[in-house]
Amino acid sequence: MRYPEPSAALLSHLSDRLGPAGFSTDPADLAPWLTDWRRRLTGTAAALVSPADAEEAAFVVAAAAAEGVAIVPQGGNSSMVAGATPAGIGADGRACALLVSMRRMRRIRSVSVADNAVVAEAGVVLADLHGAVEAEGRRFPLSLAAKGNATVGGLIATNAGGTQVLRFGPMRALVLGIEAVLPDGSMLRGLAPLRKDNRGYDLKQLLIGGEGTLGLVTAATLRLVPAIGERAVAWIGLRSADDALTLLRLLEDRLGEAVESFELVPAEGLALVLHHIPDTRAPLAEASAWNVLVEAVSPAGAVPIAQKLEAALAAAIERGLVEDATVAQSESQADALWKLRESLSEAEARDGMAAKHDIAVPVADMPGFMARAAAAVSDRFPGARPIAFGHLGDGNVHFNVRAPANSDGKAWFAATAADVSRFVHGLVTEAGGSMSAEHGIGRLKRADFLELTDPAKLAAMIAIKRALDPADIMNPGALLPLAEERARP
Amino acid sequence: MRYPEPSAALLSHLSDRLGPAGFSTDPADLAPWLTDWRRRLTGTAAALVSPADAEEAAFVVAAAAAEGVAIVPQGGNSSMVAGATPAGIGADGRACALLVSMRRMRRIRSVSVADNAVVAEAGVVLADLHGAVEAEGRRFPLSLAAKGNATVGGLIATNAGGTQVLRFGPMRALVLGIEAVLPDGSMLRGLAPLRKDNRGYDLKQLLIGGEGTLGLVTAATLRLVPAIGERAVAWIGLRSADDALTLLRLLEDRLGEAVESFELVPAEGLALVLHHIPDTRAPLAEASAWNVLVEAVSPAGAVPIAQKLEAALAAAIERGLVEDATVAQSESQADALWKLRESLSEAEARDGMAAKHDIAVPVADMPGFMARAAAAVSDRFPGARPIAFGHLGDGNVHFNVRAPANSDGKAWFAATAADVSRFVHGLVTEAGGSMSAEHGIGRLKRADFLELTDPAKLAAMIAIKRALDPADIMNPGALLPLAEERARP
Questions:
Q1: Could you tell me if B255 lies within 8 Å of chain A, comparing CB atoms?
Q2: What share of chain B is helix, strand, coil (3-state, %, to 5)?
Q3: Cβ distance A427 to A381 under 8 Å?
Q4: Is residue A161 less than 8 Å (CB to CB) from chain B?
């Protein structure tokens, strides 16, 4: 009896805010969603609540939280384990829970080729997502049988797998950002398509695979990859599963990560399919005890990597993108080119003092950001010399600010570096970026981190830290304020 | 003054257990490790404690926890943000903290080509890790400037990046498993090289990038990739950073994920290198405003993907691995092959009732596990017919158990399926695997999950759930016990 039934006031509050499209207590509306996909459990709910956007979703959770009313989020209702069925909540089968359907939130907010990312709301159906990004020449590399029902939110809550995990990993590996409502109704806003972000606990990892128990995902930024150029599919008969595994490693050695799928089918399984499913026929002349279905995918042409690279660069030169280029003709030439990159920090240090920053913004915005930030720094700190270099493909550069030429570098650093860093970190945060792409927070960046980070995220981090380390004995002072400094309970 | 100095009893307790190689209060031993890499902060510590193995590490944390003494973990002491420096702990600069060095834990516990995984202790230096896996024909695809100092534990605690993030992601994408001591001294044991595991909150994600504030990593299972076959390196001059980004997408469209590095260098940075670093020379005839260093890597030959696949299969046939194989010669043939795989569940359902399981074990053990489990199930449940199929490359199959032939399938299912599932889940757990590779726990698998999961993990999950959702309003009954059923505070 721990969960109360929602009060009449709560229900009318929700009905007023969400309107008839977003709120129903009609048993006919609820019925299709109260039984799980595999028809193993049937639950009860006081209402079907369908927010139209993130603000309505936050409203619903906050309203439920105020009365301690239970929420069961649901996407396509295609859970294999009844993860979205409001069963067993409240005594005597009373209709206590709010069944929160995300199916109305089905907007693709944006597709960016430059960022290789799509922002999709939680209710977007996987097959629709595939179509939307294919129209832009990209691919979302996760697929599974329920793709006509499964939604982005459900795929995240269950860390879905599918047939391309071998190459691309499960959903967790494809989620770049999440927008979610936390159980108290506060919003966790993290949709920036950052490839690198080391600002503390990666809270989205708790929501991925969290089965809706830590928050309600409202939208996500998902990783895209180039569309398929060629694919090769083979059906292979083998004597044993051991041989199948040996074959997989042989294929990977020769084809690399082009191997996207490697699906095992026993003779008995193939026989079932041939027996029960129309329009199927045996792929091989003789049945083997074990079968493997392999798919290998290549995005592009068919020449050695150096020739491929040269051809691609020739195309870029033709388009006027590139002024000049040299392709290493030997390992020692390659090493010499890498030495130029790897010596940058050392060369910079020999040249004098610099305030160093390890920043990330969305990849597509990085060229513009570097120019804007350099101008802003030069304007605010006359004579200071910004320089940016590094991992452009990740949207991560080391944006360092050198002391003015002919100045006393040490004195400048002592007097100004902290202000420069606070200023640069502020610019990055305003641009939706991360003030720590890869170095973390530690002790050196803690003050700026505490000042600039989202209060909802900080509160959640502190709560998790308290939950796992109530005495605050693990690396105190790194990342988070010391326990006695923490203002918020 | 919140942190006490360790008592004399605690220090002698540690000294007794760890011996002279693992415990020192000699200022000369401590000094090199009290100042951070960038020489910005110097701290104090009551002792340098260097556990030799995970059990000693757990002993240290438990002993410290008993007195509320602070622990600062340290690997290679190469943090860019003083993340491993015991500064600011305890009032008046008193030496309160234990500086816990992981440098003695430098064993590579195993390298498995079949699992594409290495198990390395926290103190293993990155360059040593590279060498150890190269000796086995594999590659650990993360590298950075501090590779001669940085350790596996520190790379995990800081979610390190480097020059190959573009293709392989940061450390988070390469960590398959973690062994760690939680702040209360309990061990989180998760080294099984599972590619898929959806048993609740992925706690290792909190330790990755957690900067040592949630636990002490003692070892990790890391993902390996095939060794490099060919690489191509180019230096490219461009007019703008915008053009660089456009070039990146052009290269990715033509070369796919072969593009591993894409490093931006401004004219000024290159000039600094050429000026300060000996044995460097300008790579291009004319200086451009911007430069990009590209590395593209291919693991293998240079033919179209279908030819590559055919050649690889021919080699497998020659080795006696493969009995027969067919490579699709058209898209419709490819679709027909895929249909055979995708129809398995439907064909199975048409054939009768089955207890379904979605299990993972380490990839290398899957052939053996399927045989052992099928024999055990047939032995325990006479007549029941196990069948396994699916994602062998991920170490994940759907291991289903069909009702005995000519039985009343529904009656068998009602009477026996729960016992069969509990038995199969037990076998999987005994084999170090996951009873939920991709489907999650939901409501259907909760009883088995609660019974079979590691108590330390379950307690941490409940603590996090409580911290973020104290009223337990989010999807109650899924994944975790309802709040009122939770035994442990």
A1: yes
A2: 40, 20, 40
A3: no
A4: yes
Integer angstrom CA distances of residue A40 from A236, B443, B478 = 36, 10, 14
The predicted model scores a pTM of: 0.84
Strands lying side by side in the sheet with B71-74: B23-24, B47-49, B98-101, B71-74
Name the helix (H) or strand (E) containing B47.
strand B47-49
User: Would you state the structure tokens that stand for residue A83, as one six-digit string?
Assistant: 């993860």
The Cα angle at residue B354 between residues B352 and B355, in degrees rounded to 5: 165
Chain A residues with CB under 8 Å of B256 CB are 226, 229, 298-300
Tokens 């977003």, residue? Answer: A22
CB contact under 8 A, B263 and A202: no
CA distance A236 to B470: 53
Is B375 within 8 Å of chain A by CB? no
Note whether A305 and B231 are within 8 A (CB). Answer: yes
The amino acid present at B421, given as its one-letter code, is S
Measured CA to CA, the distance from residue B57 to residue A168 in angstroms comes to 35
Within 10 A of A205 (CB to CB), how many other CB atoms are there? 22
Q: Digits of tens for pLDDT over chain A (489 positions)?
A: 478 999 999 999 999 999 999 999 999 999 999 999 888 889 999 999 999 999 999 999 999 999 989 999 999 999 888 889 998 887 777 899 999 999 999 999 999 887 789 999 999 999 999 999 999 988 999 988 889 999 999 999 999 988 788 788 889 999 999 999 998 888 888 888 887 888 788 889 999 988 888 899 999 999 998 887 766 777 888 887 777 777 777 777 667 667 777 777 778 878 888 888 888 888 888 888 888 777 777 654 444 556 666 766 677 677 776 676 677 777 777 777 777 777 777 778 888 888 989 888 877 788 889 889 999 999 999 999 998 887 776 777 889 999 998 889 899 999 999 999 999 999 999 988 888 887 878 888 888 989 998 887 788 888 888 888 887 778 887 888 877 777 544
Q: Report the residue from B258, B442, B464 with minimal CB separation from A79.
A: B442
**DSSP string spanning A39-96?**
S--B---SEEE--SSHHHHHHHHHHHHHHT--EEEESSS--SS-TT---S-SGGG---
Count how many pairs of residues, chain A against chain B, have C-beta atoms within 8 Å.
714
Separation between Cα atoms, residue B59 and residue A62, nearest integer Å = 43
B chain contacts of residue A274, beta-carbon cutoff 8 Å: 340
What residue spans of A85-216 are helical by DSSP H?
126-134, 152-157, 165-168, 171-174, 204-207
CA atoms within 13 A on the CB side of A255: 32
In this structure, are strands A230-238 and A225-226 parallel, antiparallel, or unpaired?
A: unpaired
Q: Report ipTM for this prediction.
A: 0.83
A466 contacts B199 by C-beta, under 8 angstroms: no
Tokens at A173, concatenated: 């590996």
Cα distance between residue A172 and residue A162, in whole Å: 12
- Catalogue the E-assigned strands of B90-229: 98-101, 108-112, 117-121, 138-139, 175-181, 187-190, 216-223, 225-226
